[in-house]
Amino acid sequence: MVDPAVLRRFSAGAARYEANAHAQRLSAVDLLAYTRSSLEDAPKRGRAFKILEPGCGTGLYTRMLLDAFQDASVFGVDISEAMVRVAKRGIDDPRARFAVADAEEITRGSYDLVTSNAAFQWFLSLPRTLARMASLLPAGGLLTFSFFGPETYAELDAALRASALRRGAKEGGRVAAVAFHSREEIFDALSAAFPRWDVVERRYHQEFPTLADLLRSIRYTGTRGGGARESWSPGKLARVEEAYRERDRGIMATYQVFLCRGVIPAGGTG
Predict the structure, then answer these.
(1) Greatest Cα pair distance in the chain
(2) Residue 79, CA atoms < 13 Å, CB-side half-sphere
(3) E strands in 24-141
(4) How many alpha carbons lie under 13 Å from residue 18 in its C-beta half-sphere?
(5) What's residue 77's pLDDT?
(6) Which of 51, 121, 127, 262 could form a disulfide with 143 if both were Cys (CB 3.0 to 4.6 A apart)?
(7) Cα–Cα distance list, 246 to 97, 163, 209, 225, 253 (Å)
(8) pLDDT in tens, 225-237
(9) Exposed (0-12), middle (13-18) or buried (19+): which is 41, by Cβ within 10 Å?
């Protein structure tokens, strides 16, 4: 199950999510291209192509999937009712259906493709989730997902620590992303669940006018920017922004994203 605190933040920011989802939009574009290239050698099916999208959110990636795969149906699942409500309002297509459910707990169904953009890093158990996704795929089935890495918001993390050191504190707040899985941990989880797998890295960059603008973007996309929201007093905001600008000459944000793939070979498990 997703951390309840994460669920609350995503639900609270549902209406403003896509307006602030800069990195999520870029990763969705790259994930779609990565997925399409992975399907080029897949055997042709004489039936409708079935796609499961865990963590569908507001439907940003769902719309891309429907445009890219005209013969496919997409089942989008998200634990946030508010997110699903936005997705349903924005997508009027009989090929798409949605459900409010915990994507980590899906155990039934068979899908040709399971694909998810910028959601798996929030699941509580990546190894268990990948094993369950693999169980939903037939021979020739494919899992693809984008995964935010621990170096996301590295500049903000460094500014928080630098500001704390100036005040004599041994350690400052940290951004939530530092707890995300590393590339090696993703390797281990994928290799345990799939006979064939692959991971490639992307980095996206974004500049903000002020630190407050960055924190607002983080809040509306469901993540935390170091400490609880109420800990950002005007004084702390000014101190961290000063440290940020001294280090980076501006308010920059880097997003580390892994594009991941797991394959169930058509000819067996080898």
Answers:
(1) 67
(2) 19
(3) 49-54, 72-78, 96-100, 113-116
(4) 14
(5) 96
(6) 262
(7) 49, 11, 15, 19, 15
(8) 444 344 788 999 9
(9) exposed
Helix and strand counts by DSSP (H, E) for the chain: 10, 7
Measured in residues, the chain has a length of: 270
Half-sphere exposure of 153 (CA within 13 A, CB side): 23
Q: In the structure encoding, which two tokens stand for residue 39, read together?
A: 């399907």
Q: DSSP letter at 199?
A: E
The number of angstroms, rounded, from the C-alpha of 225 to the middle of its chain's C-alpha atoms is 16
Q: Distance between CA atoms of 149 and 228, rounded to whole angstroms? A: 21
Contact, 28 vs 61, CB < 8 A? yes
Task: Write out the two tokens for 79.
Answer: 């634990």
**pLDDT digit string (tens) for 52-85?**
999 999 999 999 999 999 999 999 999 999 999 9
Torsion, Cα of 158, 161, 162, 167 (10° steps): 170
CB 119 within 8 A of CB 77: no
**Any idea what DSSP says for residue 58?**
T
Count of beta carbons in the 10 Å neighbourhood of residue 202: 17
**Nearest Cα to Cα of residue 144 among 17, 247, 8, 30:** 30
Beta partners for residue 97, in sequence order: 75
CA distances from 79 to 54, 101, 119, 140 (A): 9, 5, 11, 28
The Cα–Cα gap between 243 and 229 comes to 19
State the pLDDT confidence band at 219, using cuts at 50, 70 and 90: confident
Residue 25, token pair as written in the block: 């939009």
Q: In this structure, what token pair is assigned to residue 94?
A: 């009989």
**Residue 221 near residue 181 (C-beta atoms within 8 A):** no
Q: What b-and-e string marks burial along 99-125, b requiring 16 or more CB atoms within 10 Å of the CB?
A: eeeebbebeeeebbbbbbbbbbbbbee
